Amino acid sequence: MFENLSERLSGVFDRLTKQGALSEDDVKTALREVRVALLEADVSLPVARDFVKHVQEQATGQAVTKSITPGQQVVKIVHDTLVQTLKGDDDPGALKIDNAPAPILMVGLQGSGKTTTTAKLAKRLKEREGKRVLMASLDVNRPAAMEQLAILGLQIGVDTLPIVKGEDPVQIAKRAKTQASLGGYDVYMLDTAGRLHIDAELIAQAAAVRDVANPRETLLVVDGLTGQDAVNVATEFDDKIGVTGVVLTRMDGDGRGGAALSMRAVTGKPIRFVGLGEKMDAIETFEAERIAGRILGMGDIVSLVEKAQETIEAEQAERMMRRFTKGQFNMNDLKMQLEQMQKMGGMEGVMGMMPGMGKMAKQVQDAGMDDKVITRQIALIQSMTKKERANPQILQASRKKRIAKGAGLEVQELNRLLKMQRQMGDMMKKMGKMGKGGMLKQAMKGMFGKGGPSPEDMAAGMDPKALEQAAKQMGGKLPGGLGGMGGGMGLPGGLSGFGKKK
Question: Mean pLDDT throughout 30-53?
């Protein structure tokens, strides 16, 4: 998400922060580059112009030019302006789904990911908020649209309205309303039909359903890859039907991200969620502060902590912590960490959330390291016996050949894995002893301790500079840096040389 924009802005601000005193011309030159970067990222011209104007007014005052670190002061102003552009003046708060059964109307063009988003959101409401959800497909035009929602419902364990052939969307909406009331559901979601473009029939159908359901929330699903067109679609839907929020899909593949930056400023409608992949849990609430941090390469430690909390049990973390602080780290522990990393979005997903790590993503790619590396490492560990996993030091030549053959890989790849396991064991021991109460212990306790601090509090205590410093102490540049940054979060590190192209 926002890779190109993030890369361009990082380059501009790196040059600014390396300078001592800043003149007004320095700031103007930097902001010209910022404006070009925004336009290239598909941000609309009026939004880019207003953005740069606002930053320039703030950044050319005495507070910046006489500041001890003027470059960093400018970065902070840009960060705050980004947050304001993304969020607007009013915080939309949580979805209005009180007074059961609460209807949520899902609208959008065909191919924007509306049906998948409906299922993702239903799963989120069920698992995170404990809501009983009913989904209903009102798409009578697209072949197998209703069946698609029914299949997704089975996958995520959410009920769908039984399909009755021959009904029109308004009749289905009325039946969903009745079923939701009689069945004791908290929320019912209406997945409307889409078209390839906005036309009179699409608007009339969506308006008729809206009048019957009287939805608490009308969420417009738009494809983030369509850039400025997404903003135009949002404006038109809001004018004709009335939209309470936007869901931007395919943001994992968007190197530009301009739609997100323009959406709130142009339409005045809040972005409620972003879709970040095909998996059913690949949806996040849109948090302006976190997104601004990611755009400026500051990472998103809060999301990283939240993801870790979701994918690991508190008791399991306590056990891991006790073992790690004693320097006990065998192949079972490594396998657990590799699987944890896969659940959290793979190497790229985790690195994107770590302060200062966004710039390393290219190094990782150039080294031929991707998520297939993790799959191969897990395959090697699965080829070992229980005894070998618990005591990797017993592995001699004949055992190594057998394990490598079982995984369909070379012995040298196994040797690299063993080296990585040894390095991580040493690193965990060091982290267990570092600082007051042990750096590893503090991180684990904050993340998984019952009644511990929230992800926000936890992240606030994890100063990005301190994290980068820890990474250097644990092994310097990439691959060691990966280990240093991830170690305290139950993430694998030191993926040294593994998967390099031969």
Answer: 83
